[in-house]
Amino acid sequence: MKLPSCLLCDTVQLTEGEQLLILNSAADPFVQHVAERYRTIQLTLAEDNIALAQALLSQPDTRIRHIAFHHAILQQPAGTVDSAVMNLLYQPGKSWILYGLQVAAHALRPGGRLYVVGAKDRGLLTVAKHMQEVFGTVETLEISKGQRVICSRQPTIAIHSESIAQPTLPVFADSKLDEGTRLLLEALAVHATDETLDIGCGAGPIGLHIARQAMQGHVTMVDVSLAAVAAAQQATYESGLSNVRILPSDGVQAVIGQRFDLVVSNPPFHQGGLQTTAIAERFIGEAAQVLQPQGRFYLVANRFLKYEPICYACFDHVKEVNGNTRYKVLRAVGIHKRLPAIDR
Fold first, then answer.
1. In this predicted model, what pLDDT tens digit does every residue of 67-82 receive, in sequence order?
2. What's the whole-number mean pLDDT along residues 272-298?
3. Which residues contact 242 (CB under 8 A, 6 or more apart)?
4. Which of 52, 93, 102, 158 has the fewest C-beta atoms under 10 angstroms from its C-beta?
5. What is the value of pTM for the model shown?
6. How many angstroms separate the CA atoms of 228 and 48, rounded?
7. What is the dihedral of CA 71, 73, 74, 78, to 10 degrees?
8. Which of 278, 272, 246 is CA-nearest to residue 343?
9. Burial classification of residue 343, based on how many CB atoms lie within 10 Å of its CB (0-12 exposed, 13-18 middle, 19 or more buried)
10. Which helix (H) or strand (E) holds 298?
11. Domains of the chain
12. How many of the other CB atoms lie within 10 Å of CB of 1?
């Protein structure tokens, strides 16, 4: 399935010199459209995905700045933004959307505009009701191929940030163990001296479990989500463990020069609201890149996802070591001499 076309490009009204806030939607083609078309618009990316933010920041354009989405209310000055934009497709859940509305209410100047694009099945009509409650107005600007752009204006009397609650964003694979994670932990064989990498760590339950067993080794946890990294750091602090480090990273890019005895992953299979196997397939290839020659790789996935072929493309031996009707845990060992290149 293809991502929707840039409905925002023809709908959002911008003027040179404006301050534009992108609410966890850096993947929307509208962002690149603005960067290329306007010379003096100042772009702030309130973005959770470090890879998307870094890709835009790498462009030769000093008008773009990045702040972590989950800290946006703390990092963005109140009443300074002319327009804010959010695409519902890129929000992991309802609480993220509501938080985005709160960030907009905090950041928009009086008369500033919030544009939201999405479909009914992504909860757009419910979001419109919340926008009406927060801003007092909401209107539909465009409808095309099941997508709508709706807009609210900041009231003349600005909303003060101290009156806005500071919500906590839930993170994929939070501290409560889901069924797949439990199966993975049951199957793991951890050695006391293991140097371990947890790819896509979420809030860190897998990495912390390993750290408790590999007290003479170390655990590195990486995630592309800044909110996940913050949650894992907090969980590590509360655990009292000292053999753990957590890094924001696009896959294994932050540790590409290192080698590990054990690599584990419970990868997501949705991106931008769409089902995909690309993330897990990339993690499998990257695991083979950073493992020691005799290293072990464990992956948990929904049973219907066919990851075995890519595992066999990277490893000599692949075996299901745990599972049930919904999930499976694969263990792969024996790295091929020639490995697929990491897709950056």
1. 999 999 999 999 999 9
2. 91
3. none
4. 93
5. 0.89
6. 9
7. 150
8. 278
9. exposed
10. strand 291-302
11. 7-163 (3.40.50.150), 179-335 (3.40.50.150)
12. 8
